[in-house]
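Progress report, Aim 2. The chain analyzed during this reporting quarter is listed below.
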Amino acid sequence: MTTLAEAVLVDVTLGAEAGGVDFAARLVPTATVSGIVFGSDGRPATGAQVMLIPSSGIVARNATMGACLQANGGFEISDVPPPPPPPKVWVVGLGVGGGGGGRYTIQAVTRGYRSGRDRFAGASLFATHPISVDGSDVTDVMLVLQSGATIEGRLVLETGAQKPPFTLSRVRVTASTVDDAPCSSTPRHGSPMTLRFELVNVSNGRRLLRTRNVPPGWMLKAVYLDGQDVIDTPLDFGGVARIDDVQLVLTDQITRLTGSGRDPQDAPLKEFTVGAFPADDRHWQPQSRYVKAARPDQNASYQIEGLPRGNYLLAAVDVVQEGEWFDPSFLRQLRDEAVRVWLNEVTSTELDLTLEAQP
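Predicted structure tokens for the chain:
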């Protein structure tokens, strides 16, 4: 197993043993990947880290492969297996693409790199290159460190009954990485105080453009790039110097899901977490805007707002680990017993839950 998509959930209760956890080893040809990393001044780089990331997406932490640079800027990564097939990803300027199996992205990143008259001296520099691995050694890979992309755009306010918020100074635009890639970097947040924002030094890798600190009653509805809504499509800005006129649409036409939790005797309950997740499992992804959870207030009432319109499943649990609502294996366990609910824009839906004590 080299990716999280191949992982299998194993339940182990307190004081119990889990047996029958077997692994089937596959004999596959491995290869060595080697090359050299250069700085923007053409000289061999120092202090950079090189990693291999499968194009299939999220990588298990203990399955990443990498190497530190040698004194001459060279690197070598051995025992590299063929990777699984990649998912679809929006490559900026090319649209949605995929590619065949056997693909890796080799990444180099360095922090605090200074060379000559580099504009981003002292900031992270990056280098990426796609390679195919099929059991034969890959040699003479050359990477040239450079600054990340600059993304410039604006916020568009779509309002119905409300007036636009008085100030947007707290709103932040981010390009957060979808993959758990060690060479990824979170760029500086944009500050759209005048409805415009700029993100600088955005490295490659699958990213989603999102907003933070949006005023209550508002949500991100759409992200337009080249005239297409890519709000749920990971973007890769590798090799791109600048992207202009990205539009992020904020709306006050949002969904609200409210209710309470009670036991079979109709007594209010306060110690539970309720989560809403889409019936369509294609949206069971990290950072999915289709997944939200909430805890009840002092009146045993919960509220979840800002979900896109659609068909959802609602489930309540006693204990949930951080990030577990985005785990497909966890959601599969909840699916059969979950309550189905349809959410429409500009409407509030009330749904009370009857919770039974678990043994």
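Residues 84 and 101 are 6 Å apart (CA to CA). The two ends are 34 Å apart (CA to CA). These observations will guide the mutagenesis work planned for the next reporting period.
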